[in-house]
Design a protein that fits this description.
By secondary structure, the chain is α+β, with helices and mostly antiparallel strands. It is built from four helices and 13 strands. The longest helix has 18 residues, at 2-19. Residues 60-210 form the Cupin type-1 domain.
Length: 216
C-alpha cells in the first residue's frame, strides 16, 4: 500500500511539473482580449462573446518581408495575443523571421515557450546551448522545408548562411513567449550592470566592457 501511495505521489508531482511548463488551459471556448469587460484573464479583460468577430482571430501580413536593414540583419514579425486578441488563453503564438545574407537573430531565450522553426526560403544555421554545467552547443544547417526545435528557456540563435534573403515561420507554445536578447539584457540594462561585475564574469578588461556597454 505504501509503495502504491508513493507511486501515486510521484505521478502527481510529475504531472504537476508538466502542467506548470506551459500556459494554463482555458475553461471556456475563448477569452478574446478586449478594452473593457468584467472578467480579467491573463492580465486582460474578456470581450463579450456575443461581440466577438472573425477579425479577433485573424492577422494579415505574414506574406510581407520584414525590413532587415539593421545592425543584425534580421527582423522578427511577432503574432501573439497582442496582434490576435483571440489567442488570449490559447497558449500558442507564431512569428515570421527574415534575414539578410549573413544576418543573424542574436542569441536569445523565450522564458515561457518552446519554439519550432520551419525554413520557408533560404539556408539557415541554427543552434541552442544546453544548461549548466555542460553548456553544450547543438547546431545544424537547415534548408527549405526543414524544421528545428528550441527547448523552452534555452539560449538559441539563427544565421542566414546563404547568399540571398531568407525567411522562416516559428511557432511557440505560449500566447506571450517573451524574449530576452542576451547582449541587450547583459550589456544594455537600465541602469547598467556594474562594469566590474561584467569584467569578472566575462574575464575581460574593464575598458573593453565599458566600450561594449556604450554600444547598447
Amino acid at each position: 500500500m505504501a509503495a502504491c501511495r508513493l507511486l501515486l505521489f510521484a505521478f502527481l508531482a510529475l504531472y504537476s511539473s508538466f502542467a506548470l511548463a506551459s500556459d494554463p488551459s482555458s475553461l471556456q471556448d475563448f477569452c478574446v482580449a478586449g478594452p473593457s469587460g468584467k472578467v480579467l484573464v491573463n492580465g486582460v479583460t474578456c470581450k463579450d462573446p456575443k461581440m466577438v468577430e472573425a477579425s479577433d482571430f485573424s492577422f494579415s501580413g505574414l506574406h510581407l518581408a520584414g525590413n532587415v536593414s539593421n545592425a543584425v540583419g534580421s527582423r522578427v514579425t511577432a503574432v501573439t495575443a497582442t496582434q490576435i486578441p483571440g489567442l488570449n488563453t490559447l497558449g500558442i503564438s507564431l512569428a515570421r523571421i527574415d534575414w539578410a545574407p549573413k544576418g543573424i537573430n542574436p542569441p536569445h531565450t523565450h522564458p515561457r515557450a518552446t519554439e519550432i522553426l520551419t525554413v520557408i526560403e533560404g539556408t539557415i544555421e541554427v543552434g541552442f546551448v544546453t544548461s549548466n554545467p555542460e553548456n553544450r552547443l547543438i547546431t545544424k544547417v537547415l534548408n527549405k522545408g526543414d524544421a528545428f526545435v528550441f527547448p523552452v528557456g534555452l539560449v538559441h540563435f539563427q544565421k542566414n548562411v546563404g547568399h540571398r534573403n531568407a525567411f522562416a515561420i516559428a511557432a511557440l507554445s505560449s500566447q506571450n513567449p517573451g524574449v530576452i536578447t542576451i547582449a541587450n539584457a547583459v550589456l544594455g540594462s537600465t541602469p547598467d550592470i556594474p562594469s566590474d561585475i561584467l569584467a569578472k564574469a566575462f574575464q575581460l578588461n574593464l575598458k573593453v566592457v565599458k566600450d561594449l556597454q556604450s554600444k547598447f
